[in-house]
Automatic annotation (TrEMBL):
Pfam families: Acetyltransf_1. One of its GO terms (cellular component) is ribosome. The lineage of its organism: Bacteria, Bacillati, Actinomycetota, Actinomycetes, Propionibacteriales. Residues 1-147 form the N-acetyltransferase domain. Keywords: Acyltransferase, Ribonucleoprotein, Ribosomal protein, Transferase. Its EC number is 2.3.1.266. It is an enzyme of class 2 (transferase). The keyword Phosphoprotein does not apply. GO terms for molecular function: protein-N-terminal-alanine acetyltransferase activity. This is Ribosomal protein S18-alanine N-acetyltransferase.
Amino acid sequence: MTVRPAGADDVLAIAELERANLGDDAWSEALVEEGVTGNLPTVRYLVAQVEGVVVGHATASIVDDVAELQRIAVDAAHRRTGLASQLLDAVVGAAQEGGADRVLLEVREDNAGALGFYAARGFVEVDRRRRYYRDGTTAVVMRRSLGRGCGASDHGR
């Protein structure tokens, strides 16, 4: 398994992962292409490959001292293999390199698996956004400190 920055050849695979994993909340192929090709300068796309096939991706926006994990998606056949953890580690590394002191994310309040995944990796709940998703589900806002600045004393991992 390899995690690397996404390139133009990965747009279709990322868009397919979006549709398969996020349904109505999936980003369009055109929006993915904008981000992958650098037209959204704060956005970074990473892909996970197994035997040359893209089976996961992560998207983050890094602006000044804040990184926001916008997406993590792994093909159903490759879940529970550590790919999401490796993608998250790569996002955290990119955030640190970009000067961020924290990573923020939103996750559906009804997604117990994702909430547990992020909590086990040092994320803590800091807020909720009511009716955030198209179907009206609330988003749980989570933060992980990167060891300096914002919240470093409560979870400096």
